[in-house]
Amino acid sequence: MKKVFLSMLTLATLTITSCTSNDVATETDPNVVSLDPTNFKGTLEAGKEATLDASKVYYLTGAFIVKSGAKLTIPAGTVIKATENTDSTVRYIAVSQGGQIFINGTATNPVVMTSAKATPSKSDWGGLVICGKAPINTSATAGGTASAEVSDLTYGGSDTADNSGVIRYLRIEYTGYAYTSTKEFNGLSLFGVGSGTTLEYVHANHNGDDGIEFFGGTVNGKYLVSTDSDDDSIDFADGWAGTGEFWYIKNTAKAGIEGSNNGTNGYATPMTNATLKNISIVKGTLANSEDAIYLKEGAGKWTASNVYIDGAFTKGLKIKSDDAAANENITNGNIKFNPIQFANTATGFLPSEYTGTNTTYLTVGTNTGAGAGAAAPSWTTGWTAGL
Amino acid sequence: MKLKLFILTLFISTLAFSQTKGTISGVLTDKDSNNETLPFANVLLKGTQINGITDIDGKYSLSAPAGSYVIQYSFIGYESVEIPVTVIDSETVTLSKALGAAGYKLSDVVITTHVNKQKETALLLEQKKAVEIKQSIGAQELSRKGVSDVATAVTKTSGITKQEGTGNIFVRGLGDRYNSTTMNGLPLPSDDPSKKNIKLGIFNTDIVESIGIDKTYNFRNFGDFGGANIDIVSKTHTGSEMLEIGFELGMNTLANSQKDFRLQDGPSKTGFSNTSYPKNPFSSYNFDTNWNTAAATPINTSIFIRGGSEFNVGENGKLGFFGTASFDNEYNYTTGVSNGSIGLNGIPRRNLNFESFSYNTNTTVMGNVNYKINTNNSIKFNSLFVNTSSQDHQEFEGIIDSFDIASDGGGYIRRSNLDQTTVFINQLLGNHSLNERTNFNWGVSFNSLKNSIPDRMQNTLIPQNEQSDPDVKQVSDNNDSENHRFYQNLKDNQLAANLALDYKFNKEDEDYRGKFTLGYSGYTKKVGFQARQFNFDINNAVAQPVVDKNNIDGYFNQTNFSNNLFSIKTFNGGLAPQTYDGDQNIQAAFVGVEYKFTPKLTVVFGTRGEYIIQNIDWFTNISKGTNKFDKFEFLPSTSIKYELNEDQNLKFAASKSYTLPQFKERAPFQFEDVTEVIIGNPKLYSSTNYNADVKWEYFPKSSEIISLTAFGKLIQNPINEITITSATNDISYVNSGDKAVVLGAEFEIRKNIFEKDTENKESLSTGFNASYMYNNQDFNGQKVENETDLTVFFSKTEGKLTGASDLLLNADLSYFKEFSQDKNVLATITYGYFSDRIYALGTSGRGDLIDKANGSLDFILKSKLTKNIGLGLSVKNILDPTIERIQDNQNVLVKSYKNGINFKVAATYTF
């Protein structure tokens, strides 16, 4: 029985191997493939591994997809530049469920994903999409799945400890490509990514949509920077259950942090459960930004501490009065901001839109936020840009 | 001269051999054809064996022993008239009569020359004689009921409804994908990239002789069938010369009450527009049509001319010509509520009031040549050109997204759209009696269709600062496509051929008991689609000015473009369109046998083998690829007819057929609708359909029918369009469950309440049909997950079919009074009703979207003032009910509006 299974597996691998079109096998190990820096696109099939060469600039000329069972390693200092879309194929990098990416940047030598345009601008290219097997709350059944941005990418499941690899010291810029009426890429999209994944030191800069967005999942995000976003800076939704520590957010067109539970059903489970520590949200110079934090669509559970809000926002916490689920979450003690500081506010500033009976969910204090209040914290030195 | 001699001879022989007899003679004429003489009609003295047939000039003569009789005149497709007559010895009584529609004695039909299929009675007779279960609606009935297009026409028959807004036809609860449309038996192209069938509304009833509705499958039809095949039989001309012109003037109460009726700038009022995107759309602002609207006067008009003539060619040949040309336009206005994205808490995220202005045109030109070479051979050429345009300008105001855009109100969306379809249909058809036993008929067609959406415009404005004044607006910068222009082209060319050979066998007395049929159908089509969208990306790094919603041109212009307030982009970064090209090739052969086992029992059994190839290549900004699909289907079908007695039939039909996924449903091609993205599913496969019908028909009189049908359908692996579970609420297509079941009954009655057969006729007749259905399908999310890469969060494990109303009713009442030969009046009221039906299936715990039950009442008055002049008046949608769509479970209003009442006066002149 075991032999039959093994031979089937071999056969399957062979079949898959023969289907691989864009990777070129080296003579030594047929499973290790090298990728063409001048035409970086295609798929890395199951069982295959590839490591980029940090001495070269990789020109992303289409979608690059790491399939289930494949591993892509990007060493420190590697630069990936998305070329201008002149051939109608959107540039983005995606990791499928079961695939892994290892972005091994360092504090002095980060991995950079950016636009190849001479004068780059927001929305030049897609972004980085990672799909995992951790729970989401939009599926029909507990542990069920859904389809991500590109419909052949599935995400969600019941593996809370799922491991999509390591993302450390990554700067991702000029993302947010709008490719349909309803879809824009985020800088970094985390779809049902599990807690086995390491997510640290990521800077999303100049984002046409959100900087970083969590769609369910259980991954923790530490040392995240999101600046200059046309939408929200950091967004979590659909039952994200994780800890966010040391987030530095500046220049946002919509909300600094937008956190929701479920757009259709504010009470959907597993409910979003966010632990947020050491957060700075700085309004900056973008027009229209009104709210520092938006507790949206049922909001879920929030335990936030050491939050520092800076600038002329209209509201500190936005919460719609007709969003019964979100208001109940505050009233029932599921949402706490202890302590939060509102610095440099304008006249007419409203700290919170909540008008219910809970009077202790929010305590105002003096905070350092991500480390230095409105100023860029020291941990951003060396690998971020433009702070 | 010859005839005079003939009559003289007859007269003499009467004198010579029937000294004790008298004679009745006269001329029969056709009341409906300018009193042309009526040849080959039957004349009978009731209760005797004395009968005769009118000659070529409509003359007849009977001799009978002196006494009192009732003389009966009859002819197929015409009323049968009975008049008391007294025959006196050696005398000739002259009795002439004009026969009209609606009445004949079926048992008297001896010969038929030309069956006028426009007439209700003729179609009823055809229905009675057919072995198959058939239903038809003819030009006469359409005219009586004031029906002007084919879509509305089919809804007058039992079990068929039209979806509000989309115009989609549902037959017994089965929508577009289950139906097929043909003209004279040959397939028609589709005008919508997401639909299988052409919108039936584009066909004007001027071109229609009759519409046949086959709700059971027979082997002559293409096997991609589940609900009905709708066959439009185009009008032809026989008989003497005819020329008619007409003019109509109308208005809609709501449209007319609008002082500021506004439409998109650019499209021509003629319905023929040719707008294209600018040459250099990115470098500067080069759009030459305005965003601002243009004013219009909402008066509806219609004009037509039609004529025909027939010539004798040689000894037996006849050449008939028919032509019709018309132009119609129509303005409508609706206003109401449009809500959407209603979550489980029952709060609509989108909460808008809307105004919609629309303008539609239809230009139809049809010509045909009907060449009857001799009694055994005929050829018909038919050419139809239709151009339809449908313009609408909509303005929405309120909350665009309660969690996001204009969340406290003051949001403004305007959308202007022109959808133009041009279809050109050319058909050549032939029928040949090769000998007494063998008949051969054939048809070929070449059709081309172009659909375009040139220059769709959309703008979204939001309050500059919601908290202060929602009326101070600026352009929305949430998503690039909120302000856009869109250009789409679809081409569909197709070639089709039908060949069928019938061979009769087993002659008994004068009739053959059996008929063997062998045939071929082929159908190949090529579809090409291109779309480009230019998005106006708002620069939110600079302060945006206040924009007046009535002067969008004041913002989107070269100055503001130069000042970098916005830039112009496409989804893919360049001018290349997103495209798909598809071809479909179906080759089919069929064989069938019809056999009359006893004089009462006839059975038809046939099978069809069909080979289908579907290919699609697509190219979008997110993917490109090819999807190929081929399949062989073997499709048996049977029909049984048992004649209970002379007036009653019992019929049975059963079949297996299939439902193919449409081209783009299988391609992972992102199709951009205005507010949603629809993506194909390469793992979609065809459904298998089983159908059985039993029908009892009773024809009490030639113009009357009572029928009762019971039917059952089983659809395995039905396909549904549904919102898949995704980060962005995309819509796709899945085989959503194991089966769908439909069980139903249809009842139809047409009855004359009274009928006065005096010199000037007077009658009151009524028609009523009803259908009641049980329908159910299961939804299986696990099945979808196992079979595809998609997941669906069905709100229910089972439910009704989209578009299926449990109860459908149609009723009409017609009063006809004749004042003199050329002076009459016909008044009809019709009523139609459907019970609640699903518009879209619910997902993620949201209820289904349901169109609420509705009834509509129309009044139509037609009068012939003189031999030449006719007048008409129609009042449609008299009750003007509020059209409502709700979301079930949460029980929240999604859409609500009224359509207004339509008034129309018409004048015709017949030369």
TrEMBL record, chain A:
Keywords noted in UniProt: Signal
SUPFAM superfamilies to which the protein is assigned, alphabetical: Pectin lyase-like (SSF51126)
Listed PROSITE patterns: PROKAR_LIPOPROTEIN
Signal peptide (UniProt feature, chain positions): 1-21
InterPro entries: Pectin_lyase_fold/virulence (IPR011050)
PANTHER family: LIPL48 (PTHR41339), SECRETED PROTEIN (PTHR41339:SF1)
Protein name per Swiss-Prot or TrEMBL: T9SS C-terminal target domain-containing protein
Organism (species): Flavobacterium hiemivividum
From TrEMBL, chain B:
Keywords: Cell outer membrane, Membrane, Receptor, Signal, TonB box
Pfam families tied to this protein: CarbopepD_reg_2 (PF13715), Plug (PF07715), TonB_dep_Rec_b-barrel (PF00593)
Segments forming domain TonB-dependent receptor-like beta-barrel: 434-878
PROSITE patterns: AA_TRANSFER_CLASS_2 (PS00599)
Keyword Membrane among record annotations: yes
Keyword Membrane: yes
Gene3D superfamilies: Carboxypeptidase-like, regulatory domain, TonB-dependent receptor, beta-barrel domain, TonB-dependent receptor, plug domain
InterPro entries in alphabetical order: Aminotrans_II_pyridoxalP_BS, Beta-barrel_TonB, Beta-barrel_TonB_sf, CarboxyPept-like_regulatory, Plug_dom, Plug_dom_sf
GO cellular component: cell outer membrane
Domain TonB-dependent receptor plug: 132-215
Signal peptide span: 1-18
Cellular localization per UniProt: Cell outer membrane
Main location: membrane
Top-level taxon in the UniProt lineage: Bacteria
Molecular-function GO term, any one: transferase activity
Protein family membership: Belongs to the TonB-dependent receptor family.
Record PANTHER family: PLUG DOMAIN-CONTAINING PROTEIN (PTHR40980), TONB-DEPENDENT RECEPTOR (PTHR40980:SF5)
Protein name: TonB-dependent receptor
Species for this entry: Flavobacterium hiemivividum
